[in-house]
Amino acid sequence: MDAAMIMYLVPVTGIIALLYAYSRARWVVKQDAGTDAMIEIAGHIAEGARAFLRRQYRVLSIFVISVAALLAFVSSNNPDSSPLIAISFVIGALCSGTAGFIGMNVATKANVRTTQAARTGLGPALNVAFSGGLVMGLSVVGLGVIGLGGLFIIYSNLWDTVRVINVLSGFSLGASSIALFARVGGGIYTKAADVGADLAGKVYEGIPEDDPRNPATIADNVGDNVGDVAGMGADLFESYVGSIIATMVLGAAFIPAFRSASDVTDIGAVLLPLVIAGVGILVAIVGSFFVKVKEGDSPQKALNMGEFGASFIMAILSYFIIIFMMPETWSVGENTYTSIGVFYAVLIGLGAGVMIGMITEYYTSTHRRPVIALAKQSVTGSATNVIAGLSLGMYSTGIPAIILALAIIGAFTFAGLYGIAIAALGMLSVTGIQLAVDAYGPISDNAGGIAEMAKLPAEVRERTDELDAVGNTTAAIGKGFAIGSAALTALALFAAFMQQADIDSIDVANPVILAGVLLGAMLPYVFSAMSMAAVGRAAGEMIKEVGRQFAEIPGLREGTAQADFVRCVDISTKAAIREMILPGILAISAPIIIGMIDKHMLGGLLVGVTVSGVLLAIFQSNAGGAWDNAKKLIEGTIEIDGVSYGKGSDTHKAAVVGDTVGDPLKDTSGPSLNILIKLIAVVALVIAPLIR
Amino acid sequence: MDAAMIMYLVPVTGIIALLYAYSRARWVVKQDAGTDAMIEIAGHIAEGARAFLRRQYRVLSIFVISVAALLAFVSSNNPDSSPLIAISFVIGALCSGTAGFIGMNVATKANVRTTQAARTGLGPALNVAFSGGLVMGLSVVGLGVIGLGGLFIIYSNLWDTVRVINVLSGFSLGASSIALFARVGGGIYTKAADVGADLAGKVYEGIPEDDPRNPATIADNVGDNVGDVAGMGADLFESYVGSIIATMVLGAAFIPAFRSASDVTDIGAVLLPLVIAGVGILVAIVGSFFVKVKEGDSPQKALNMGEFGASFIMAILSYFIIIFMMPETWSVGENTYTSIGVFYAVLIGLGAGVMIGMITEYYTSTHRRPVIALAKQSVTGSATNVIAGLSLGMYSTGIPAIILALAIIGAFTFAGLYGIAIAALGMLSVTGIQLAVDAYGPISDNAGGIAEMAKLPAEVRERTDELDAVGNTTAAIGKGFAIGSAALTALALFAAFMQQADIDSIDVANPVILAGVLLGAMLPYVFSAMSMAAVGRAAGEMIKEVGRQFAEIPGLREGTAQADFVRCVDISTKAAIREMILPGILAISAPIIIGMIDKHMLGGLLVGVTVSGVLLAIFQSNAGGAWDNAKKLIEGTIEIDGVSYGKGSDTHKAAVVGDTVGDPLKDTSGPSLNILIKLIAVVALVIAPLIR
Fold first, then answer.
1. How far apart are CA B183 and CA B185, in angstroms?
2. Would you state the pLDDT for residue B458?
3. How far apart are CA B430 and CA B413, in angstroms?
4. Contact call for residues A116 and A34 (beta carbons, < 8 A)
5. Residues B246-281: pLDDT tens digits?
6. What is the C-alpha to C-alpha distance for residues B302 and B124, in angstroms, rounded to an integer?
7. A461-498 pLDDT, tens digit each
């Protein structure tokens, strides 16, 4: 097997992913969609989601065309690059956008079919929800590998590998641009609707908070799809693509050494990330077969089987791939590398991903001490609940930071900067199934909402609640995974940036660079503040609109007239797109401005934004997740000092405040930081040839 | 004038400060202390404050003796140091402890006399409160300069200047140790009492929240003195001493160059920080004469006159000092320095301090847009109030970070690393009057509390309220100043550490160092989490004790029996001392452990902890300050969409939640970070000779 053959096999795995995703999607669509009421509600949600995507993609297309023209212009005189970088950029954006489109379309079909399946039993419902998620997961990895692999093949016919990779980096920028819109915009959308719907009941008397009569509930359900399905998909697509590109950039430095040492191909280190990604796709498909549950079994166990099973298989396979594609040992300058070292780096990435997920689970699960303690702090009111949640979130940064620090040191020790990049990819190699598990959550959540709105029997709601409870945990783990992979991807991109910008060292003893670190560390705060304030403003508009409808639509309060869902969907959509412009400009312009001042200062900025962004993201995600589950705990069966509290008690009200505070933290500003740190690093990587 | 003469003049300024402080203290004590009821209440507060200090100093003395023995042991074989470093350490601790003792003693006498003076008019009341604060301010700078200057004279007779400075660095560690106890312990104390007193009313029915019958109110008033007077004093003492030492360390590198270029002394760059500090003392005394207010005038204007007047005079004088003590130009290696460059660095420090203060004022003042917008967000409930406050706090990191970044770059451009250190000192040169203004706040706050408890006529309370309102703004500015100076001091100490540990560059492109940055950036989160959780636990104990007293002491509810204040004071005291052990161990052990692994990684840790700590501190301080004032705004005259809200409204209740959440953020975990970043840097500096 030679390099060309390997190269051509990579996109084939992507095609397999898409074909399998298509078959799962067909299967989902063929399932029974239930009663007329259910079909109607689901139709509103699907229509709202499509409306958002349509409007988002319209704005995006203007943005993408402008940036593409700019990219083509600045690259036209660069002998190491090519105006075709604009094509890479557009295709990157298209692949990410298409994956999001497919994923959301199927998710909005899977939700109601999950509800209907839940009328028969837990197993069938899990099957539909997970299949819906799997379509999203496989679309992301499939399109990622087809896009990158395909362009790599085409460009390889034109130029040498180093130039190919430079031009390819535009793909990553395209993915990041979509991620910015999907994750930040989606995050604002979903929480504007959620917080708006909840608070309307507080502001105006007699408006039910969680009820089909509340016109914001459809927008709320649309938001789950927009933020948690499409947003999460674009986020991981960005990480996936970013870590592949970064590894390719760093691998290119090995070509001369491989030429004498390798018996397979001299671009083994460049192809390796693509091959691992391709094999990861096949493993994800295999892993999905493990996800089966019988009535009475725990859905959590089934999902874990799929995820851990896939990780385990991937670990074993990557050993053989690396041994096959790389020489046993090679040297660049004074450094000697070994193939087994690269394998260890992959293991470290996989292991770090699993461990960060487990820590996240510890801090946000209803069964563990932190959330139980948080629930108890709600007895003395909302203030102590909020303080305790902030404290919990801050605490929870400790162990993940140590895991990441050890992973960075370990991967570097075993395989240099290449090791850090390949560790990021190791973590992301099972993205296909990870994302399936992530997307399963909002689908189940939607299924529950539909059951409620369609007034289905209690046992249906119980089953969807069980799926949803598991979904909360998987969502928390998925968030931890997304942050961890974003961190490693950003560091990989940082290493790639240094290589491309011809930077040997970034010395923070130099105050100019130190100032860069400080400014970088500040950006996540301002970015978070912007997205939080955006949610506040948009939720305010939503509250007013709900109040207006209840005042002006006769019979709405009594349930005889229908609410104007479309207006609420429209408010969220407009707000999401309007409010993400400023943070977007901030994220894109900051690295360009600092890079023009001094490329080393830009290096400092990247370090600052990554380190600060990761910690702030973990803090926000875990605090938000813990508040959410503390509220759930109090709604359930918890006893505090012998007294049990349920819905409507003062303790519950206090916990609801924490939950509402946590909403934008965990679903808007926290996840947005994943995008911020990667986007800034990608922009730096793309402009690197210009400032070297 | 030669070096020896300059050297001997420095402690003289410190003695002048103490003499003037003594005369102001005598004057304060001679004022009328008012009615028997007032004297009794003030006596409780003073007794509580002394009880805390006694217990704190007992624990501290064990800590100080142990660390001193350890320091003497590890330094005994180091030819660049000496076991006498233990003496520096003990004297540093003693000076800081004594300053805190004097300041708090006078503050607890000034409070009731301010109340009494307020019965006559605003002017006399301001005069008493400010005089009380001035005693604190002058004690801090006086003892700092006497201690450092005196030890410098003694050691200079024993060794060469470089060794003198090494041994002197123990003084800074002593100051930091006290600051840790006073600021972190004091912060926990004050908020345990405050939050506990407030929430007791929520948990048990019929217990007044802000009333002399509530046994936690005395502890609450003690807390103002413990946290805001003694804690702030120790914080600024640490910055003051740290920036002087750091400048001396960096100035030592100029000795050979000065030997040929200077016509005054070859240790001009080493002596300069002491001289600036000494002159700053005289300027602070002069500035204090400007603080006069007539009935009808604004106390804010009077305080501003004192502060800005002193800053202005200091700026002019420092020009002549620098021109006198330094050659016009000199070179070290490839770098050329100029005396005018050093002067610019001082100006930059002074200017940055004033600007950060003004930004803080903008984000936390009741008259400005951010707080007004925050107050409006309270209409939709406590959740939106909390979200908006978090967002405001995060936003508010933006401009201060840019100011600091520019200050760092500017000071470095004009005068190298020495410039950064001297900029820190420039900011701190007017600490004497800055601290007077800071301490004025809690004294006025106490005065108001005493007026309330002693049931004085409404006009008295109105006057003390006016003083207190100004105190809130000065407190906010003071906090901004404390953070800014802590940041510059930490960076100055960082530069000094590099020189002492013989580190040329700290390359974050090296993943081990990058891991150090990540771990460093995480520490402020965990440190904040610990202190917040500590407040939560201690407040919980306080709530229970208040409940117990109301249940068990007959007649307490009716006001016929007296509450057992002492028990509440005791709970806060014990909790404060118990709860600060773990954060303290974390702060001291982290740099030692990382330093033993790799001195460059320790450099990374310092960068991470400083950058992350400053931002997290600004976020917490400003969010807390804004919530506090938003609540005050709603209690007053604000109109929101044409409706005005007062005490007891739902909007007010929502704002109270934000205020309570903000309490530990702005008074415990936020300020504690100032200590964390300096303490870690000082520990690194002290162990630098051992790991070089």
1. 6
2. 85
3. 24
4. yes
5. 999 999 889 888 888 777 778 889 999 999 999 999
6. 13
7. 888 888 887 777 777 778 888 898 899 999 989 988 99
Chain B within 8 Å of A388 (Cβ-Cβ)?
yes
- Report the gap between the CA of B517 and the closest CA in chain A (Å): 7
Q: What three-state secondary structure class fits A429?
A: coil
Strand A335-338, strand A329-332: pairing: antiparallel
Cβ-based neighbour number of residue B618 at 10 Å:
32
**Within an 8 Å CB–CB cutoff, is residue A381 touching chain B?**
yes
> What is the band of A295 on the pLDDT scale with cuts at 50, 70, 90?
low
Task: Show the tokens assigned to B473.
Answer: 């703004």
Q: How far apart are CA B539 and CA B199, in angstroms?
A: 8
- CB B611 to CB A535 under 8 A? no
Distance of CA A114 to the CA centre of its chain: 23
Residue range A327-369, pLDDT digits in tens: 989 988 888 999 999 999 999 999 998 899 889 989 988 888 9
- The H or E element spanning position A329 is strand A329-332
Most B CBs within 10 Å, among A391, A512, A513, A579, to test the B interface:
A391
Residue-wise burial string across A66-86, b where 16 or more C-beta atoms lie within 10 A, e elsewhere:
ebbeebbebbeeeebbbbbbb
Chain B CB contacts of A383 under 8 Å are 195, 199, 656-657, 660-661
Token reading at B124: 């006399």
Q: In this structure, what token pair is assigned to residue B85?
A: 């470093």
| Angle between helices A339-364 and A458-500 in degrees, nearest 10 | 140
Q: Copy the structure tokens of residue A605.
A: 């900025």
With beta carbons less than 8 A apart as the criterion, state whether B662 and B617 touch.
no
For residues B485 and B464, what is the distance between their CA atoms, to the nearest angstrom? 30
B587 half-sphere exposure, CB direction, 13 A CA radius = 32
Instruction: Determine the distance in angstroms separating the CA of A667 from the nearest CA of chain B, rounded to an integer.
Output: 13
Q: What is the pTM of this model?
A: 0.94
Domain housing A632:
3-691
Q: Can you tell me whether residue B555 is helix, strand or coil?
A: coil
Tokens at B59, concatenated:
């624990």
Output phi, psi for A238, to 5 deg. Answer: -65, -45
Cross-chain CB nearest to A536 (options B387, B528, B529): B387
Tens digits of per-residue pLDDT, B547-568?
Answer: 888 888 888 777 778 788 888 8
Dihedral (CA of A118, A664, A581, A513) sign: negative
**Residues 154-213, chain A, touching B (beta carbon < 8 A):** 195, 199, 202-203
List the structure tokens of B612. Answer: 């992350």
Cα dist. B179→B57, B60, B172, B520 in Å? 12, 11, 10, 20
- Distance separating alpha carbons of residues B605 and B525, to the nearest angstrom: 14
Residues 508-567 of B with CB under 8 A from A: 508-512, 514-519, 521-522, 525-526, 528-530, 532-533, 535-536, 539-540, 543
Q: At what angle do helices B216-223 and B511-552 cross, to 10 degrees?
A: 150
Q: Please give the distance of CA B361 from its chain centroid, rounded to a whole number.
A: 17
Q: Can you tell me the distance from the alpha carbon of B446 to that of B450, in angstroms, rounded to the nearest whole number?
A: 6
Q: Contact at 8 Å (CB) between B576 and B664?
A: no
Give the Cα separation of B311 and B477 in Å (integer).
15
ipTM: 0.93
Contacts of A296 (CB under 8 A, 6+ apart): A122
Instruction: Report the C-alpha gap between B315 and B310 in whole angstroms.
Output: 9
CA distance B56 to chain A (A): 25
Say if CB B372 and CB B633 are below 8 A apart: yes
Total count of domains within chain B: 1
Question: Per the CB < 8 Å rule, is B521 touching A377?
Answer: no
Cα torsion angle, B229, B577, A397, B385, sign: negative
